[in-house]
User: Fold these one by one.
Assistant:
Number 1:
Amino acid sequence: DLKYKILIKNKKLRSQIKADNKTEAEESADEDGDEEEEDEEDEEEEDEGHQSKAKFWSPRKAGSKKKMKKKVKVAQALSDLVIYARSVKFISFSHSKDNQNCYENTSIAEKKARKLIKASGPDFVQHNQKFLSRIYPAGSRTSSSNYNPQEFWNVGAQIVALNFQSLGLPMDLNDGRFRDNGGCGYILKPAVLMSSERSFDPSSSQNHLKPAHLLLKVISGSNLPVPKSGKALDPFVRVEIHGIPSDSRTKNTHTVKNNSLSPHWDADMNFSISVPELCLVRFCVRDQTTLFRSEFVGQYTLPFTSLKKGYRWVPLQSRDGCSLDPASLFVLV
């Protein structure tokens, strides 16, 4: 029913909330939802970082300043467009079960979401079977760094917000996750996150009785990009499995000296994966610069379920997601 449509996620005007039989207290909580949660997150981070300096603070000065909250103003035309994803404050899973409507969306800061996963992962999965959840980075990430989105996909969170201006592993995983379905940014959740018959706990390693086995041979590389210095690479390949904690693994090939054009590894790798529907496979080529240090060369990330058996050509991408053609890997699955 929602195909080819755009969903607007936002708060609604109070007058329209009242029409939905909301109380004044609930309206206020809805209106300040995102801001309050982010403020709480920042305060927790600040308290942890400055406990040792507490004795230098004056209680009178600390209590004299009250933070003024700015009320959010919503235009009538925008409020009218909010139908399927109205923003409301998250209180608890039980509260949502009893009070939240299916067309309402809650936003949870990463730190609070991580605590909920640790305390009650199966309840988080069941919550996301009925409601939309948005996870967002902590306000303390002033450098626009990112968390690992995989841990929140594991509980079925539909909107896992990242700082797209910051390149690196989290954005590589995000690109890989939505590589299915033409890269349109929307994919269906796997059945393991939608089952009403059995609860799913991403923290448990006993989810599937018969795990899948991934047998890989990393054969060779071709036309790897040479650094500005012009010196040939000392490349190796790191194969990473990103999924539930018990499935996440990393294995490396050996390093080939001074060969950027056609390095050969012929390295066999074996991975046992209990929940393949949630797994991403990341091929990362790195340059061994010193004994304990290596630098990024190129990578490619895709869902485990998109892998096909046989000899495969893996195109490499730069840190910003652009093609490094003709740089590639040759693997056997």
Number 2:
Amino acid sequence: MYAYENERCMFLCLQKNLATYLSDCYDSIAVFLCIHIILRFRAVTAKRNVPALDKYWEAVLELLWPRFELILEMNIQSIRNTDPQKLGVLDTRPHYITRRYAEFSSAIVSINQTFPNERTNTLLGQLQIEVENFVLKMAAEFPSRRDQLIFLINNYDMMLSVLMERAADDSKEVEGFQQLLLARTQEFIEEILSPPFGGMIAFVKESEALMEKGQLDKLKNDEARITQLVRGFSNTWKQSVEVMSQDVMRSFTNFKNGTSIIQGALTQLIQYYHGFHKVLSQQTFRSVAARSELINLHHLMVEVKKHKPNF
């Protein structure tokens, strides 16, 4: 009888001390680790058919889970209320808030994989949404779309790199940032191709749209425009690619990511020039003398490879 009372008093004392500690604790990772330690202990005792501590485990978890969820909700609210204009000087490099999020989220995701909890996944999903909104709000502070895209790509790439070190490749967080990074990278590629090659790109898109409708003859009187595009590309493409490559490598903090963007831009450029060849091979433009001045596509591909950086 006395032993039972002593054990009961000890359990109540432990619970009281834990409750006191948790009331002033804001270390969500530490709390989450405690939860998973208990889940592991509970699994071991269940496997060994030792039910004596079941009520104690449940009582402790009833203290830990609400505190963990409260801290996570506070983090969500903090990100939601952040004002980008109060965060100092604008910089296109990864922001310290997104880095903290990535490290925090990857830690929680890696721990949660052992004993998945749907409530935790839901809260992490809400936190991710708020961080995505924060990144967009920060990007909107930059005056040019080019700088906005550089900021977004640098932050998405950094968060993805940190998450992939610990989280599974098929986790929601990894998949979400992969999609965002891919979309903004493709937009950035179009953005940097536009100044030096925008005229040719616009002509290809316009021509392909008319070809689908069988109305390509509407451009048969554009010989002067076509001649200018052909000669302009031949005379400036090497210098334009070199300048573009140097600019990209200066803009992105991750050399590997910068290299990938350059390769994507050069691949897209070749595809546009292939489309240019295809359009000018149509009967409508057979009489255009400048067709003979087009760069051979295979030769262009060989030359382009020389401009790919090696990192």
Number 3:
Amino acid sequence: MNKIAFWFIIVSLIVAVAAFSVYEEEFNNKDIDADFEEGTGETERKGKILFPFVSIVRFANTDCASTNTMNGTCLARRECNNLNGTITGVCASRRGRCCIVSRTCGTTTNVNNTYFNSPGYPGAFSGGQTCTLIVNRCNSNICQLRIDFLDMVLAQPDGDGVCSTDSITITGGNTIVPTICGDNTGQTIFVDFNGNAAITITVTASLATTFSRRWSLKLIQLGCDCPGIAPNGCLQYYTGTSGTINSFNYGSTANTALSSSLVTGTRQIVNLDYGICIRMEAGYCGIQYSQTSNDVYSFTVSGDVEGADNTVLGTTVGAVNGAACTTDFVVIPNPTVVSTGVSAGTDRFCGIGFVPVSTGAKPFVLYVVTNANEGATTTTPPDVANRGFSLAYSQIAC
């Protein structure tokens, strides 16, 4: 063998080994063979490696639409399998697989777009066990966890607004999240991670109460530089020039439980103290709030709902504000009465009706406060059949 042939063989071997190393590294970092099609096995895939000419294709791990109502993440087949995910379709021009990652009681996740479902979902969960999911950051650039309540039906609070039968609690983050229960489908909350500490979601459901409870939460991890991240102090964050803001467990039907004062109980949950923010859109400088139309119960925060007739319930006559709001109320900074253009002179609103107000105070935010009970005290009568609030907002152009 002459020297030229010897060195040609050596160089060819080096190129082949380097090409294989690149292939192996790239594949382990979410790459996939461009020719890989549905149903191709591991043996076939290895047979397609031709050295030194190896075609490596990368694709972004973006959201993808699945064949059902859930969205997935575009991953390589092997990675989806390693995450115990479910492949529901293809993505990235058929180079990736749309992977749905679902978890239930007693599990852990560090995967973006994880679904946390009740056992047997969408079937009813009978309860009995404490159901916990531990959420770790998927990388060090993650600052916040967005939790979408796609479907959340738990037992109502007792007549005094306490989540004594069912509850969901969220701990471990750098955001204080109140204990809630009841009907919260469509709600979204934002929880800041506390460094590398995990966030724990716990659902408690009483086996003693027969109820068609169920839940499906979508857990989205937001990067520190993500445009959709909620500002500090905002448990909820709305975008768009208009929308509807509902208090937790808002609904037009009454709670069937009686309060400790032996009157119709409240749907409004006790011990709430949180901020709701609305992103100021480009070209808009103010915001207006009003009751949801055609719903007389859409602002029943304090007082006696059953004792009011239609001339009071849901009207400006039933509206209370200022110093009279001491137990349960909504705070809107620096408001102006829409009908008169005059300052409201207070930022607290309660009662069984709401006067439309606007404000130019920035950022756009309102605060929700409820006290520890809905029963009678030495100075106040009991709240009766309160629902909470459903407020429509509309931003005002500059």
